[in-house]
Specification:
Layout: H1 4-25, E1 60-65, H2 84-87, E2 89-91, E3 127-138, E4 145-150, E5 158-162, E6 168-170, E7 184-190, E8 193-197, E9 209-214, E10 216-218, H3 220-229, E11 248-254, E12 259-263, E13 267-274, E14 277-279
Antiparallel strand pairs: 1-11, 2-3, 3-4, 3-5, 5-13, 6-12, 7-8, 7-11, 8-9, 9-13, 10-12, 13-14
């Protein structure tokens, strides 16, 4: 039988062990009084693709024109109309929104970018999620500003589309010609997002289309070219007053169908801007005039 002294020593060791367990289990800065056991969260399995660090694709630079009046020139990474990840987006909570094409009856006669041609062969993929891009509160350049409320009109301003991890993604076809056999300039790129401008104006607010493609593995050669032409000390960031324009400098120029990169995982997100306004990327007679498997708009 354990005597009182041995029992007391055993209790001391047990208490010390309990304190050690709590010290290891509770993150720093969190009071033990606030720790509660939570049920295990279900996380879906998502197939992912490792982004390649090499590429055999070739890209070239070409003319872009300065049209914005920020002085000093706002870095593209800090420009919420060029870098959609700066704005951010969130799933629309309205459960009545359809994960399918929508007929707005617009039938834009201009040559809008066709999202089915983002893929090879062309297809209308399954739609994974509908999102709302956030508005933006601008600050004086070169500061970026802050995120605003989600854009509610239209109700969908970014679209998640099902892809196979690692599949190639391409410049969406529009029939637009900016000269020299080129269709778009690359307004912005980082390792997992880019913005394509259907025109030579270095702006998403000028007349014409901009396509944002997010959650991708940007082609490393394309990213390297963009980084070299987007140098903070390069000609893109030399401000010219209106009387000294047009002011031209190089940005990557791309042809229709040219490889942009590959799918990072099971979803690629696209958004479409026309003359500075975000539009619903589900619009059947605008961005899906090419729609394999669909004989007519829903």
């Amino acid at each position: 039988m354990m005597n009182k002294t041995n029992l007391f020593v055993a209790l001391i060791f047990m208490m010390a062990g309990l304190v050690l367990i709590l010290a290891v289990s509770v993150p720093a800065g969190i009071s033990m009084e606030t720790v509660e056991l939570a049920p295990a969260a279900y996380m879906p399995l998502v197939a992912t693709s490792t982004c390649s660090q090499t590429s055999s694709n070739n890209y070239g630079g070409g003319t872009a024109f300065q049209v914005e009046y920020d002085n000093p020139v706002r870095p593209a990474s800090n420009h919420a109309d060029k870098n959609i990840e700066l704005r951010g987006y969130q799933p629309n909570p309205d459960s009545t929104l359809v994960l399918d094409l929508v007929d707005y009856g617009l039938n834009d006669p201009t040559p809008p970018p066709q999202f089915a041609t983002l893929f090879a062969p062309y297809r209308v993929p399954a739609f994974v999620e509908v999102y709302q891009v956030r508005g933006w509160n601008w600050a004086p350049s070169p500061e970026p500003g802050t995120r605003g409320n989600p854009i509610s009109n239209p109700p969908v301003t970014a679209l998640g589309m099902a892809v196979t991890p690692g599949e190639e993604l391409h410049v969406p076809h529009s029939g637009y010609d900016i000269g020299g056999g080129m269709e778009v300039i690359l307004l912005y790129a980082d390792k997992d997002t880019l913005a394509l401008r259907y025109g030579r104006e270095d702006s998403a607010g000028a007349q014409g289309f901009v396509v944002h493609v997010d959650n991708i593995c940007t082609d490393p050669n394309l990213l390297a070219l963009y980084a070299s032409l987007d140098s903070p000390n390069g000609p893109r960031y030399v401000y010219k007053p209106p009387h000294q324009r047009p002011y031209a400098y190089p940005l990557p120029n791309l042809t229709t169908g040219q490889t942009l990169g590959t799918a990072r995982d099971n979803e690629v997100i696209v958004a479409i801007v026309d003359t500075g306004r975000f539009w619903d990327p589900r619009s059947c007679d605008d961005w899906w005039q090419i729609r394999p498997g669909y004989s007519a708009c829903p």
